[in-house]
Structures are given as structure tokens and as C-alpha cells.
Amino acid sequence: MSSRARAGLQVMGIVTADIAITLDGFGAASDQSREHPFGSLDASRLHAWMFEHADDNAAEVAAIVDAGAFVMGRNMFTPGRGEWDPAWRGWWGEDPPYHAPVFVLTHHERDPLPMAGGTTFHFVTDGLASALAQARAAAGERDVAIAGGASTINAYLAAGAIDELRLHVVPYVAGLASGSRMFDGVGPLDLEPVATRPTPYVTHLTYRR
Amino acid sequence: MSSRARAGLQVMGIVTADIAITLDGFGAASDQSREHPFGSLDASRLHAWMFEHADDNAAEVAAIVDAGAFVMGRNMFTPGRGEWDPAWRGWWGEDPPYHAPVFVLTHHERDPLPMAGGTTFHFVTDGLASALAQARAAAGERDVAIAGGASTINAYLAAGAIDELRLHVVPYVAGLASGSRMFDGVGPLDLEPVATRPTPYVTHLTYRR
């Protein structure tokens, strides 16, 4: 039991968001496909710090999935648009790394999709606030994580709903003509820088609202 | 005499660039005027770390003007476009903080403008490479600084001419529809992160090519 719980205070996690972005703020290119979830933005470059240099970034990688529930945009779950293809079960295989309920924002209804390891994808058609409320209820005392992509994080930032934003800035300028880009449509907005950790392959920047 | 000079090696400074930007990468808005050098982007917010919190950022502030010569874009020197108004002598008063030659990129000829304290503005009409070559020659053993704005730094980055890029990221999302924005038109480009220093009002990020 946490000290807050022992003190009888209300115990509730915060809302976090993690995203790996290029120096020019891109989280993905717009030409997404089943083979290329990040489109023409080189995913290996964007995520080398998580996979090739996992030991150097163990704390940050663990924090990304340390939540009691997740919210993600539809484009993070699938390259498809319009009605669902029921055969599509996400990019993560049968045991996704979330191990918790994941609320997927969509305009198209779909039954919940239970996976191995405790992950269940729930498809939410009634908007950002509803998805966050459902995630909060599911998370209990734990944090809720906005899992991405950039446009979903931007929407929650603009709504003032994110307590802690964790940017993982890869030292690469993508130079895309279009794509999913952090902070598009968000400002003006003040944040508070609370932590910075540089590594040779990524710079971790943590902000609070 | 430096150890390099004592060893008989060629002694030449590097090319640096400093710029204060918002979280979404803006160095200035596009509606620049004599009264508002950064247009509708709030300059006090962009530069509070330099003025209101100068003690916390003394090393970074000093480094900005620690060069033997400077290059700047025309828009950093004046809000004017087209032919010169000879009465305009920059935004810095009669004793600008550069104390060295400053090469201003322009399409319109103008005689050199000597100021107090060792600053002379030279107006260069034959392009980026010429301005940089003139600055290198003037700087001697010292560094050449690309003083800004973002579009001038972007042009030199794209040309591979900047050795050390020092971003001073203010924790504020500007949300501008247009403006002078870091990395526009630069990528794809890899950089090497070499230093990071967080403060409550700005995050200093240093990259090398």
C-alpha cells in the first residue's frame, strides 16, 4: 500500500504520454502501411535506442508500458481506414507489450479483442474524453498512458489532459513533407521541464503540465 | 598560444550556431516589425532564460557571442525587405553585443556599417558560401557563429557547414501557423548529441555534425 493510500488520500495515477520523435518532431510519416507502420520514416532509426541500446535506456523503455491502461489512436493500431478488417490484430503479435486494457480511438465499432498476456483492445467510438475516462476506470491506482501516435497525444495535450509528457528525441532530422508531428495544433501551451537525460542515441526530455 | 598552435597544426575555429526555439521549433513568427523583431512570437518568453535568469545560464549566454566573426540572415538584422533604409542600424543600439565583424546575408548592396565596441556589419550579396568564407577569414583562430535566424541556420545545416548546433528549447508550444522554424527544409540529416543541460526555464541541447 502506498503512503498516499495509508494516509487515506484519494489514490489515482497520472496521465502520461511517451513518444519517440525526430529532431523535427515527427513520430511517423503519413504513408503508413502494414509493412511500414511508420511509413517512410525509418522505424529502425526512430527506435534503435529501444532495441539496439535497450540496456542504456532500460528505465525509459520500462516506463513506457508501466501503466494500468492505455489509450491509442487508430493509426497506431492499424494502417487501415474505414470499416475494420477483423483479421487485423495489431502490429504486436499475439502477446502485445501492454498487458492491460488498451482503448483504441476509432469511428468504427468493433468488439473487444482479447489477446494473450492480459492485453485487451477496446474500440471506443465516442471520443477522447470517453476513452480517457474508461482508461482511468480500468487503471485503478495506476497511471494511464497515452500510447500515441503524435496526433493523439497532441489532441490530449490540447485538452489539458496529459500530466507528464516524455519525449524521446532521436538525433535525426526527417525532413518529411507531411506526417504525424508533435505539437501540431496544440499551442499556445506552457509546459514545465522536469527532467532531461542524454544518451548517444536519444535525448529523453520530460515535461509536466 | 593554444596547444594546437604550439604543435604547429593548422589552427581554425569551428562553425557554431545558437538559437532559442519553442518546443515546436519556432525561432520567430513571420509577422516581424521594428517594434516586434520576433513578430507575434512573444520574445520575452523566448528569451527570459537569457535576461531574467541570466545567472543560471551564464555559460550558455556567454558562448553565444564568443566568436571571432558572425553571419546572420537579413531578417535578423532588420524587418525591412527590398532596398535598404540607411537609417536602420539594427536592433541592438549603437554598441551591439557582437564586438566583431558581422556578415549580413542580403540581396541588396549596402556599405559596411561600423558600430561602437568593435562590431561592424558587412552586407554580403553573393551568397551563403561567400559570407561564411569572409567570416572565417575575419575570425582567425576563433569560431565563426551563425547567429540566426532559424532559416539561415537551416540553410547552413543543409549545406553541412555547421559543426556545433546549440538549441535552447523554451518549454512553450507557440502553435504558429507560419514562421521561421528550425529544421524546415534541412532533412534528412543525422546529428550527434553531445551535451544536454536542463534548467527550469530552458533546456540546452548541443549537437555536432
Automatic annotation (TrEMBL), chains A, B:
One Pfam family, short name: RibD_C
Residue intervals passing through the bilayer: none
Domain Bacterial bifunctional deaminase-reductase C-terminal: 15-194
Domain of life assignment: Bacteria
Protein name: Dihydrofolate reductase family protein
Species of the source: Nocardioides daeguensis
